[in-house]
Amino acid sequence: MAGTLQSRVVVVTGAGAGIGAAAAQTMAREGARVVVSDIDAAAAEDTAHRIAQAGGEAVAMGVDVSRPEQIDALLELALRHYGRLDGAFNNAGIPGPGVPLAQHDEAHFDALLAVNLKAVWYGMKRQIEIMLPGGGGAIVNTASVGGLVGKPGLSVYCATKHAVLGLTKTAALEYGSRGIRVNAVCPGVVRTRMVDMVIAAQPETESTWGTLQPIGRFGTPEEIGEAVAWLMSPRASLVHGHALVADGGLTAA
Ligand SMILES: NC(=O)c1ccc[n+]([C@@H]2O[C@H](COP(=O)([O-])OP(=O)(O)OC[C@H]3O[C@@H](n4cnc5c(N)ncnc54)[C@H](O)[C@@H]3O)[C@@H](O)[C@H]2O)c1
User: Which SUPFAM superfamilies does this chain map to (predicted)?
Assistant: First the structure.
């Protein structure tokens, strides 16, 4: 497909649902050849199927990003199937239990760190190793407004997302001169399964969260997908080391 990402090979994690699925489909519409992955292999297949049905190109794989060897396998698939790697959207993430800091237990802490932070670091490390000899590329990481400010009930989640911005900015400084552009997207409140999980743990949030954003509604995964596709594309060539906030004005106050 012709578009701003024509023929670029882009891997996406957590692409079986929500923001990852929407971004994969938007990037495919812009011409990217997408390597779709998710811990839920059937969901990843489903996203790839929808891309193919819309005339795009994708291949799918079940990948648990908390397992480094599975990230290796994902990048190997991109190289084996398409022969190159031009972009990566490190997006898979989990919200945590939705309890105040003192009620967080160590198992939740470790799981959040493994999926939301270590996997982003390991993914970037391997992607950069591949992109450097390949002539460069673009990396987009999913942070959150919780990477910019604190959110009650989400202490460890927020800590991981602040850390994702630290990785993003530092990698931008280290690799920008060598052709790798690195940015993050910071979604506000997007109605996906992740938000549904938080609402299930804290039912009172349903009525308040919907109107939390000054635009008066939840964001959609497609709106975040548009921001990601732009950051990934050469149209954002001067945008580097940036945390792009897409939150309906939530953090403007
Ligand atoms: N929804 C929001 O309001 C919001 C706001 C800010 C940031 N985010 C971030 O956006 C990203 C995507 O979240 P979403 O809202 O689309 O949630 P979602 O639950 O709809 O989608 C997340 C996807 O990640 C997959 N996943 C979970 N653990 C995984 C693992 N270990 N390995 C691989 N895949 C895994 C899930 O199967 C799912 O398909 C996350 O990083 C999240 O922190 C979401």
Answer: NAD(P)-binding Rossmann-fold domains
Measured between alpha carbons, how far is residue 57 from residues 22, 115, 130, 177, 223 in Å?
A: 15, 27, 21, 31, 21
Mean pLDDT of the chain: 96
Q: Which of 192, 160, 181 is nearest to 228 (CA)?
A: 181
User: 122 alpha carbon to ligand 1 midpoint, in Å?
Assistant: 17
Where is average pLDDT lowest: 14-18, 72-76, 100-104, 200-204? 200-204
**Residues comprising the chain, all counted:** 253
Residue 226 is predicted with a pLDDT of: 98
The Cα 240–Cα 77 span in angstroms is 27
For ligand 1, atom 25, the nearest C-alpha belongs to 14
Q: How confident is the model at residue 96 (pLDDT cuts 50, 70, 90)?
A: confident
The answer to whether residue 175 is catalytic is: no
**All domains in the chain, ordered by first residue:** 9-246 (3.40.50.720)
Model confidence at 205, pLDDT cuts 50, 70, 90, reads: confident
Atom of ligand 1 nearest to the CA of 16: 39
| CA-to-CA separations, 72 to 61, 141, 162, 170, in angstroms, rounded | 12, 17, 25, 22
Average pLDDT over residues 27-44: 98
* Ligand 1 probe mutation, 38, 194, 196, 197, most atoms within 8 A of CB: 194
What would the two tokens of residue 247 be? 């939150």
Give distance in angstroms: CA of 195 to centre of ligand 1: 9
Q: What whole-number distance in Å separates Cα of residue 245 and Cα of residue 228? A: 11
